[in-house]
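Why predict the complex rather than its parts? Because the way molecules touch one another can change local conformation, and only a joint prediction can capture that. The input here totals 770 residues.
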Amino acid sequence: MFNFTFHNPTKIVFGKGTISELGNLVPPGCKVLMTYGGGSIKRNGVYDQVMEALGACSVTEFGGVEPNPRYETLMKAVEQARAGEVDFLLAVGGGSVLDGTKFIAAAVPYRGGDPWDMVLDHALVTAAVPMGAVLTLPATGSEMNGTAVISHETLQDKRPLKSLLIYPQFSILDPETTYSLPERQVANGIVDTFVHVTEQYLTYDVNAPLQDRQAEAILSTLVEEAPKVKANPNTYDVRANLMWCSTQALNGLIVCGVPSDFATHLIGHELTVFFGLDHGQTLAILHPAVLQHQREHKAQKLIQYAQRVWGVRGLGDEETIDAAIAKTDEFFRSVGVPTKLSDYGIELAACKPIVERFKERGTKMGEHKNIGYREVEEILALCAG
Amino acid sequence: MFNFTFHNPTKIVFGKGTISELGNLVPPGCKVLMTYGGGSIKRNGVYDQVMEALGACSVTEFGGVEPNPRYETLMKAVEQARAGEVDFLLAVGGGSVLDGTKFIAAAVPYRGGDPWDMVLDHALVTAAVPMGAVLTLPATGSEMNGTAVISHETLQDKRPLKSLLIYPQFSILDPETTYSLPERQVANGIVDTFVHVTEQYLTYDVNAPLQDRQAEAILSTLVEEAPKVKANPNTYDVRANLMWCSTQALNGLIVCGVPSDFATHLIGHELTVFFGLDHGQTLAILHPAVLQHQREHKAQKLIQYAQRVWGVRGLGDEETIDAAIAKTDEFFRSVGVPTKLSDYGIELAACKPIVERFKERGTKMGEHKNIGYREVEEILALCAG
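Output of the joint prediction:
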């Protein structure tokens, strides 16, 4: 096991009716800026619940944070927060709203120039407006971590911002708020959660059996619950289980002391930038291909995964690995997310600029830092369909 | 799943050589009171490592915190801390030193009378001196929770103190510090960890499959690692895995949204008070008996536990439950902790005062609050041997 530091100060308030606790969670006397997305929270009653719970606070609003939240949009919120001397941010929505709000939190007190610089150099984050969240879409894990993924439209760039200072002080997770989600978002969220786990688990063995089993715990639960949410979308426990899985998948726990490989996410971000695919869709396309491409390096863990999560028995090593990858691909399709570029009408040739970008940047990805632009090209070829 | 709140602000610094990071973890300029136990840290080099790392701090010491730390001893440390105007406590040792230090932390600023009152009424804890820890004995989970179990010699009492204010700010876990532990303490620690998990897992099903699997992850890892530490005590990864298991067992994670049953611990405390047994020994004696006594109420979970942790297959329900309990008992004995009162030379008749005590207090324990003094008597009878 590697040495590690684990520190996650976010308070999680989980369950039915918990939005009503907001009044006790937001520090008294704060000027709150509430951020949200396209307005679904006004249709599903969440907005009203939040406003009622915040009765005693001074609240202003910033709506319109888009999926893959954009620097350009967020900078408007930064101006509004500065002008209004806001001292608490409340994000109400899914991972994009939370991520965007984390950027706003760090950008408001930043006086060193363009806040995008902080995305390029995380050490520049030295202060942040405190924030809390009401999560309405389980997927990114943003509700309990210090990471935000931000897109810069002008630069055609999408990158993570990371800091201990942008962990939410609290996150409210009421599974009932997820009943009204479109099926596509639920499916994308399951894929995102699943891939977060495998990216921290399917690497190489460092003798960390507890972390392995904690990862498998999430995967097995997703495999079990995913068909249920399709069959009966409004079952509380199923929604609750999916929501808690997504938080546990990326709160720093399962990565304690083990290597990780976020190549799927990093290449996926480019598919979103260039083709506007949903984040979950990019992962469903890329992840089986990354596993296939790296099967030799990941062999031992792929076999363990096949056996423990998918119950594969009695096959030789190579066939077991084939089964692991096939089951993963099949799972993504079963929840409703296609896994080939051709399913989205994307030609392999159109991906050339992605390869170019990795070439320019010289990025090396994967737990062995062996995925460069040539390997990206090979992986994309495996995604063609 | 039940509603829940999860909030654990302790920073864990885990791994080889991590004591050297103390200088960055203790707030600069603090007057530190370092607490420890019987002095083993002076023999195994931990004391020297700590002192070297704290080079720049003003440090005083309080040694002699005993196993099952006593109010009477701790009050001397409270006086010393008050007199020295200490503003940071550093506990170096096992769960007893950590628990004792948590009590000191809360007692120092307490001006409402006798600090024991806080043990009887946790709401009286409204402030605490900040503390950190260097853990040298994996067992209690105290390094990442807000609980301290304190014994009052004069009153012949042993009770938990709980507060959000007594979470360590940080805990350093260096598995190498555990190499020099006596075998008996290692064995007790494994039993303590195992029982912490089962007390939060072997209750009744509330449709929380992730929490179930997270609990099983710890149990399966303990079952796997325990024989290894006996065979090769100085294997780093084995020590690391056991240490991380014990932290994860009682840091609030696996109890999220599920019922718990701490009857084994609560009755066990009395066996320590009356007969001076090690904490782990009391659990090894009582736990199989509690499971046996409550087998009807815990049937579903006992069957799941037998199948998933012990690989029991092909038996009827009752036989599967028999196997679950027998395997548990066997496991405790296999690590070196006997499971019957008679193994420790204790006659059942001598336990009468324990039953009386539960009668006086009117305590009802277990996830169904169905374990009162009569049931305690029946459980103790099952422990006789």
